[in-house]
């Protein structure tokens, strides 16, 4: 540790400073001693009346001797340190190396080492940064590929309906989270009505031009979109533009239900039904607010549905008794007949 310190330019600079202080002190102290001794001797020489005693002579001589001794201290120290440095006592050349030339060499060496270390660290940092960017770029490429694949699959689904419920082309409004519902939200949040229209239109006339995006755009363009959902009569107007025959607005009561059942059993009709849950009883199986869905037919005395809200295949493949709708607070519907 001590040996390596002798190659440290900061440590050598400290030793050099000590050497310089010793050298200056060993010049000033002898000068002071010689000066005081000379003044004392001059007083005796100039004034003959002053008797110089042996004590005075000894005092003056001691000052000259001390001045000489102090003057040669740096030389003695240098010889001593050099001798010790060449023996097994210290095994170091710190004292000898403490000079401007050696300090400059060791400073340059240290700067080169620091520069090499900095270059190494910079290289490691650059390599780590390169690796990080490569990983990020790979992740971003994978994300974009996944997003593109998802978008392509979604577009394919949106164009074809994606899921068949028997002869019915089914759409889930949640799949259209990126498409606006006018200025009020998205098809996912508000578009159960237009999606119900898309189910009927795509089933009877094919999915091209009848996706939930198409139906929503038409219905919103004709002032059928609101912050609370869609106007029922505008949904009906859309289907009528396709040649579909629509009944009048019907309430959920026994005569109208019998009329609906007769139309559904004919195989040429479907129903869009609007169910409401007004209170906190939570008795309506389809919503806790207001919701449109499609009744597609009757199977064994119960209703098959295509619910735009989703709920999985089981919900839509499951048949529902009349009581499931009667349990809702308010129910109304239109009957649509294929041209």
Give keywords.
alpha+beta, Cathepsin B, Chain A, 339 residues, 2 domains, rod-shaped, two-stranded antiparallel ribbon, 7-stranded antiparallel sheet, single chain
Structure explained in plain terms:
By secondary structure, the chain is α+β, with helices and mostly antiparallel strands. The chain folds into 2 domains: 2-98; 165-337, Cysteine proteinases (Cathepsin B, Chain A, Alpha-Beta Complex). Helices cover 59% and strands 15% of the residues. It has helices at residues 2-5, 9-46, 54-71, 73-86, 94-97, 100-160, 187-190, 192-205, 212-221, 232-241, 254-265, 312-317, 322-326; strands spanning 163-165, 168-170, 180-181, 185-186, 225-226, 229-230, 245-246, 250-251, 269-276, 290-299, 302-306, 319-320, 330-337. The strands form 4 sheets. Strands 7, 8, 9, 10, 11, 12 and 13 form a 7-stranded antiparallel sheet that branches. It has a two-stranded antiparallel ribbon with strand order 1-2. It has a two-stranded antiparallel sheet with strand order 3-4. Helix 2 packs antiparallel against helix 6 (100-160) and helix 8 (192-205) packs across helix 9 (212-221). It starts with a helix and ends with a strand.
Structural class: alpha+beta
- Counting copies of identical and different chains, the oligomeric state is single chain
Question: Alpha-carbon distance between the termini?
Answer: 101 Å
Q: Describe the global form.
A: rod-shaped
Proportion of β residues? 15-25%
Element-by-element helix/strand order: HHHHHHEEEEHHHEEHEEHEEEHEHE
What is the name of the CATH class of the largest domain? Answer: Alpha Beta
Helix content: 55-70%
Per the CATH scheme, the topology name of the largest domain is Cathepsin B, Chain A
Low-pLDDT residue spans: none
- How many domains? The number is 2
Counted beta strands: 13
* Average pLDDT level: 83
CATH architecture of the largest domain: Alpha-Beta Complex
């Amino acid at each position: 540790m001590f040996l390596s310190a002798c190659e440290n330019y900061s440590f050598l600079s400290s030793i050099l400073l000590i050497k310089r202080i010793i050298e200056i002190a060993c010049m000033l102290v002898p000068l002071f001693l010689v000066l005081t001794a000379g003044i004392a001797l001059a007083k005796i020489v100039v004034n003959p009346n002053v008797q110089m005693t042996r004590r005075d002579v000894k005092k003056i001589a001691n000052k000259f001797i001390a001045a000489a001794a102090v003057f040669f201290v740096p030389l003695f120290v240098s010889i001593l340190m050099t001798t010790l440095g060449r023996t097994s006592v210290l095994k170091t050349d710190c004292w000898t190396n403490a000079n401007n030339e050696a300090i400059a060499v060791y400073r340059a060496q240290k700067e080169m080492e620091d520069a090499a270390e900095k270059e190494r660290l910079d290289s490691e940092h650059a390599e780590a940064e390169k690796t990080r960017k490569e990983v990020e770029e790979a992740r971003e490429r994978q994300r974009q590929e996944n997003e593109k694949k998802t978008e392509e699959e979604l577009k394919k689904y949106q164009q074809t309906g994606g899921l068949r419920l028997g002869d019915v082309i089914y759409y889930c409004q949640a799949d259209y989270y990126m498409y606006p519902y006018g200025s009020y939200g998205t098809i996912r949040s508000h578009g159960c009505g237009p999606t119900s229209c898309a189910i009927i239109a795509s089933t009877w006339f094919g999915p091209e031009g009848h996706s939930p995006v198409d139906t929503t755009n038409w219905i919103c363009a004709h002032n059928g979109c609101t912050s609370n959902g869609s106007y029922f009569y505008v949904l009906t107007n859309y289907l009528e533009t396709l040649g579909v025959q629509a009944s009048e607005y019907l309430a959920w009561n026994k005569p109208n239900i019998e009329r609906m059942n007769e139309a559904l059993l004919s195989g040429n009709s479907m129903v869009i039904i609007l169910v409401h849950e007004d209170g906190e009883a939570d008795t309506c199986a389809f919503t806790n607010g207001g919701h449109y869905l499609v009744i597609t037919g009757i199977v064994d005395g119960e209703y098959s549905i295509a619910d735009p809200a989703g709920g999985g295949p089981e919900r839509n493949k499951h048949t529902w008794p009349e009581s499931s709708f009667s349990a809702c607070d308010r129910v109304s519907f239109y009957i649509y007949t294929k041209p």
